[in-house]
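Worked example 3 (structure in, sequence out).
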């Protein structure tokens, strides 16, 4: 069990880096929804004082793959650049872009509400 516990800090560190890279602001809430766990579970996975819980290795591997794909595609940067050009040129209002992105997010989202759905997203 000691060897397993030695792996916890690196896994927790990986989660704290990869979570925001993949899910952005409110990543703990979004990750909880994706994993269908309570937000509190994600907080425990990150807590260095929590010695008995670490994020699943499969989850860390999946987050690495997602982060690598996002980096390769530069999706955030490209989308942001294109939309910013439209806003700067006056062709689109920022509120219209925000509404469009919100609609697209709902369309593509497959995650359910976290188990402790009363909690609101926090960074």
């Amino acid at each position: 069990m000691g060897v397993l516990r030695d792996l916890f800090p690196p896994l927790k560190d990986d989660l704290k880096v990869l979570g925001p890279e993949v899910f952005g602001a409110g990543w703990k809430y979004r990750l909880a929804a994706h994993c269908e766990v309570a937000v509190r579970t994600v907080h425990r996975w990150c807590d260095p004082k929590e010695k008995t819980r670490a994020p699943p290795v499969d989850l860390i591997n999946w987050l690495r793959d997602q982060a690598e794909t996002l980096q390769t595609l530069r999706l955030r940067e490209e989308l942001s650049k294109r939309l910013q050009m439209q806003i700067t040129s006056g062709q689109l209002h920022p509120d219209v872009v925000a509404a469009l992105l919100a609609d697209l997010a709902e369309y593509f989202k497959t995650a359910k509400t976290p188990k402790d759905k009363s909690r609101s997203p926090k960074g």
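Notes: The chain has one domain: 2-108. Helices lie at 2-23, 27-35, 39-46, 57-73, 75-88, 94-108.
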